[in-house]
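Quick illustration, no need to memorize.
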Amino acid sequence: MMPNLIDKIGDWNPQLLRELKGRLKFFNIAIAVATSLLLQLVVFLYQFREFPDDKYWLTDTYCRLSQSYQQRQNQALQQSNQSRIAEYNDLTLNNICPQNEIDWQLWWRDHWEYIFLTFSVIFVFTLLVAGTYLIINDLAKEETRGTLNFIRLSPQSETNILTGKLLGVPSLIYLVILVSVPLHLWAGYSAQIAFTSILSYYAILAASCIFFSSAALLFGLISNKFGGFQPWIGSGAVFIFLIIPILMAPSYSYNSNNSVAWFTLFNPVETTNYLFPNYFHLSNGSPLKNLEFFYLPLGRSFVSIIGFHLLNFGLCSYGIFQALKRCFRNPQASTINKGQSYLFIAFSQMMMWGFILQNWEQITNVDQQIEQSLTLVGVYNFISLFSFIAILSPHRQAVQDWARYRHQEFSSRKSVWQDLIFAEKSPAIVAIAINLAIVSIPWVVWISLTSVIDTVHSHWAGDNFDKFKLLLALALSVSLMLIYATIAQLILLLKTPKRSFWAIGTLGTAMFLPSLILGLLGISSSAYPTVWLFSTFPWVAIEYASATTIFMAFLAQLSVLTLLNFKLTRQVRLVGESATKALLAGR
């Protein structure tokens, strides 16, 4: 029977068979099973240190006489007569709870709940942290031995190979967890935890495993420059991300009514706290119970929030898998193409703005809700857009191939604009402009409606922050990002070596050096707003600059952008012409 099963696995996924054969050996299986059984025994026996014995106090949790005893004790302390003092001394000396007054049923229920919640935490950290480490470490070893290139040449599809890695590399971890599942289920049943909650936990755990394992594969493929530190960096980042809610639990002040809520959806620890309220012993329960998305109350319905979690994990895992398929066969290819970048930006904006717009009861004060998340959304968009400038901007050889192809096949190809929007080897300026437009749409809508929604509570609706000035400031930021994208593309077209290094250095200097110099010289945005309008942070000078000044600054940046793009167009044309001339000269 076992050989038939192995043959079926090999027929379905040869890569999975290869991984399993290398790991599921008798000694490894024995160690995994023994580790799981020992862990179960330790967790089961650990709470027995609090087992009610012959010296179980009357004041302890499971003594039925605890409440009446404390009442009598308080009364004795409040009265000063000798009889009451004697009664208090008697209570103090003989405060052992009789065995027949111990609530054993409640103790065992809490004991099983402790086991269930403990294993729920262990499952999350073991599968995600250890699984991430093993996957990244396996890719690093394959790269070092040179077998990864051999796998790339395999006739198997990318999906089969990557699925084999996801299922096969952490197979011993899966075995450890699988052996522990029966006790986990029995503990949940004995603790009277709803079976639907347990199934939902397993569904979230499986979805998070797929997401984090896929992300680990992608990180392992694109981070070969880190050398042997790859697995430690990846698993360490996952561990820190997972442990944050646990560290914050004693003084839990997390508010889910902002865009941070989207990032918490990726943390199964948060979801476990929602499913099992005793997880963190919070008096108000999980913050996710008040979660809303575009004012839709997700947290009030068990089905809606679990379904939304699974949908979020599914869409993000699908996106990562598309990036994996691009990078696996060709390590030099960009992680995503231009079309995928539009979908990514649109999806992330929808998610972040959806979680900003919460608290339907306070809809008249929506400006304050948005202002609470302005910094986070701004930083996220800044990082995302600069990442796409680095990912989507092609190097000289790619642009040269594109320009030469356009010259040779112009009549049979799509329009130049279609190429600039979707073609991977074309300059990325138009693609960056489209991503900027997608990012700007929610801001334009909010700025246009801000004075209508709330003119009392929001300082953005005041005289110093009129809508026209805010729209101009947004235009300043967009034009500045396009200038940076054009500069990066021009540097990548140079013939000098290490063009990426020069592009990063130039953009870093252009972004931070002017503002740093202004700060060191003591040139404040209130005294010299015009100067700050030309820095990377023009928003700080909006309050102190007139609309005319902001408009003139925008025209100046637009002029610089136009000149840079004329230069870029000419450079691309020269690259294409030189390639064509070289071909003609060789005939």
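Residues 104-145 form the longest helix (42 residues).
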